[in-house]
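Escalated from tier 1: zinc ion holo job.
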Amino acid sequence: MKLIRGGTVVNGDGSTTADVLCGDDGVILKVASGLEIPSGCDVLDAGGLLVMPGGIDPHTHMEMPFMGSTSSDDFYTGTAAGLAGGTTSIIDFVIPEVGGSLVEAWKLWRNKAEKAASDYAFHVAVTHWDERVHEEMGILARDCGVSSFKHFMAYKGALMVDDGVLLNSVSRAMELGALCNIHAENGDAVAWMQADLLAKGMKGPAAHPASRPPSVEGEATQRVIAIAGLIGAPIYIVHVSTEDATAAITRARAAGQRVYGEVLAQHLVIDDSVYQSDNWLSAAQHVMSPPFRPKHHQKALWAGLVSGQLQTTATDHCCFCAPQKMNGKDDFTKIPNGTPGIEDRMSVLWHHGVRAGYLTPEEFVKITSTNTADIFGMTSKGRIVEGADADIVLWDPEATRTVSAATHHQNVDYNVYEGMTLTGLAHTTLMRGDIAWKEGDLRATRGAGRYVSRKSGGSAVDALKRQMAEKNPLSVA
Ligand code: URP
Ligand code: ZN
Ligand code: ZN
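Tier 2 regenerated the structure:
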């Protein structure tokens, strides 16, 4: 047993001074002030610290084959780095081959993830449509604990799905009570822009943002919202990076549609000036999709989080080292897309969100943990309450560190926050009651992570189904 003593417990709905008793089974036994110390119990002094639910990153890509490379953080190194930064669970993406079996791909990812140091769940991508996909979505939702599916509207010729696939898949997910995630960029437009830019001799990383301007994201976001509106299905838009997409989500929500939006910590604090670097590698290291945007978009993203129109924060953690990025030396369309970030998300949001006065500590907890647990059905996570998993971060709101690839734990040779000094750090991280990080000492255990099985359905989906059955939808596009 462990007793966390004398800290301020911060949940999404309020803060209180209390002790937290964690059982040997990794579950929180009690949250109350002045708890007696049971015999044989370890005591962690949390005086001056905040005791918060461990972060949940709903968007990571560990050891993912993508654009001719495999992302360099595996499920152990990536989740260990997350624990160092206060993140105790991830939701990663199973990416089946186009035409391949969803269930077989899910099994492959289950195998890869056995080495994870933190808990993990999976969204499964739908990359084509046929009868087997229809059937396997059912198997995954009913028997495999998968309650969310992913769709890429971009990456033409690889993962991209068209509107027909989206209609079929969103409708099937709705039937199953599962939630669809969407990467919203118009992939045809991107492919056309890429070809045009290459034909004009623009081959370097600066052409990457030019090939995917904000309107490309805004259009796709609006389109998939319209598609979901026809079906009456909820949807979740990943990595919202523009005011255009934020506005589309806000409009849909105001019209009564259940649309959720996720923001990456990177997009909140890094802008598109990174692509103007004279250093090719530095610019290439920032190639991700959607790209970094002109600064004014950051304001819209912060406002979206503050107003609750955007609900979660993630990292899209997808690492490629210099030799991998070099694959696109002569052609920006071949630079593997992705940036790291799992280790720094919580600190970036505390420093630039809470300390800057945009977010309260309780809102910080909601957007780093609770909202993700609720939206994705991770029912034992996201709160410091009796019966919840003892996934806890003892947060030092005043401690400071300067980010560097030389000292980070991510298995990648750069850090997009290099040189950024952040105040607000994970002092101690407990993953189901075990100390995985304490004052700079990483004790993440290979294979300690468990698969988080999630149930489909729930009252929001039932309500939406009633709304459609009554032929009285609040919002049909
Ligand atoms: O650039 C990115 N985001 N790489 C990972 C794949 C994706 O689009 O999420
Ligand atoms: Zn994406
Ligand atoms: Zn992603």
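The pocket of N-(aminocarbonyl)-beta-alanine (ligand 1) is lined by residues 61, 183, 288-289, 316, 318, 337-338 (CB under 6 Å).
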